[in-house]
Amino acid sequence: MVPVTFASTNQNKFLEVQSILSTFDITVQFAQVSLVEVQSDSLEDIAKEKARSAFSELQRPVMVEDDGLFIDSLNGFPGPYSSFVFSTIGNKGILKLLSGTGQRSALFRSLIAYCDRENASISEGIVKGSISEEITEGGWGYDPIFRPSGTELTFAQLKDKKNEYSHRRRALEKFAHWISSRNG
Ligand code: IMP
Q: Residues 25, 41, 66, 143: which is the catalytic one?
């Protein structure tokens, strides 16, 4: 199959995407480009717009990813603002917002948007879980505080096993089936 281009500024994401898609015999090329990110309440709109802008910049079929961490007791915050919130208050700030709450459930969403003409197609993956009481060591982004359901460990502590649980794995599994059936 023709290699798929993944556009992002995030090398960590690329490494996970590459490792997951290799299990479906899909080769991934990394285009480390900075893309226009529209502000919107909808992750779908952000992902689709990002894919269209990547396509128009690279002039070849391309996939991008947009993610959001949704915390139940904060009514879904930070959701579509996860990137901004991470770079401002970070994991420490999230734990502070949740201090004293017993309700720590959350979910992570990944939207993979693929664009090969004008329109972008979306594959979604969701993992339910909870926010840990402490910041654990390792990982990147919210890995040190997000604990997927089915284990006591955070993404950071799961290390290589993170992909067995992650929102990204789930979205990419759907993407892999979609693109394989499309390419016949
Ligand atoms: P983005 O907009 O897709 O880059 O993701 C929004 C925020 O979620 C960024 O701060 C990312 O670092 C973070 N993020 C996305 N995926 C993961 C993950 O798998 N683990 C930890 N943090 C993540």
A: 66
